[in-house]
Structure formats: structure tokens, C-alpha cells
Amino acid sequence: MKLGLTVLFTRATSRRRKPWKYSAGLNAPLWGVFGNNDIGERDSLTSAVNQFGFEFIEPPLTLLWLEKKMVVVHDPLELSMVDPGDYDIILHGHTHRETIEYDGDQLTFNPGECAGHMAGCNAIGVLDLQGLRVEILKF
Length: 139
Fold this sequence. Notes:
Purple Acid Phosphatase, chain A, domain 2, five-stranded mixed sheet, mainly beta
């Protein structure tokens, strides 16, 4: 059996892209954090999250999955709310810049642009939790 989890990094409320219906088909739980562009559309976003059985919260989101401690924030500045050294994996968005940084056994990962604002630069990231390897899928 393959175990997986999904953490959604997208401007979830984008009218051009509706990630919900695609993510709903995954056979894995989906968690996310609200971002700075979600403020004006929080009601519709919360409705979509609830409709598909996803879980979104205000950052930081902390997870323990396959014995890996993870923290998820939208803006890297939100890491000031936690001790980043306590986590094996730090996931963030906001910058629209791909980030794959290893510091010893710790990984900091941002898959980059996925909101549709930078044509030709859209990407999602796949993270292997056992080996802490990442793959960037461009679209």
C-alpha cells in the first residue's frame, strides 16, 4: 500500500484554475494553509474545502507523517511563529520561487509558481518523505 499526503500550494481561489476537483481524486488526505490572497474570498474557499473534505487552517500547520515532522506556512516570515529547527521538513509558498534547500537532515521546499500568474513557470512539487527527495512537475 502506498501512503501519501497532499499539501496544496496554489492560489486556491483562482477563477482560472479550480484545483479542488483535481485534488479530490487523489487517494490521500489534503491539508493546506490560508494565504494572503485568500482574505477577500475566505467564504467561498472554506465552502470548497468543506465540500471536498479537505482541511485548511491559518498557518502554521504542523504535521507528523511517516515519522517526519513538518511545518507548513504560506509566507516564510510566518516561520517566526515556530522553531524551524524542530522540523524535518519546512514547506512554504508565497514567493513564487522554487526553493529546495537541505540543511543537514532538514528540507525547506517551495515548489514555486503554481497560481497561473507567470506563464510557462507553473509547477507543483512531489516530495518523497522517506528519502526527502523532491521532484518538480512543470505545466
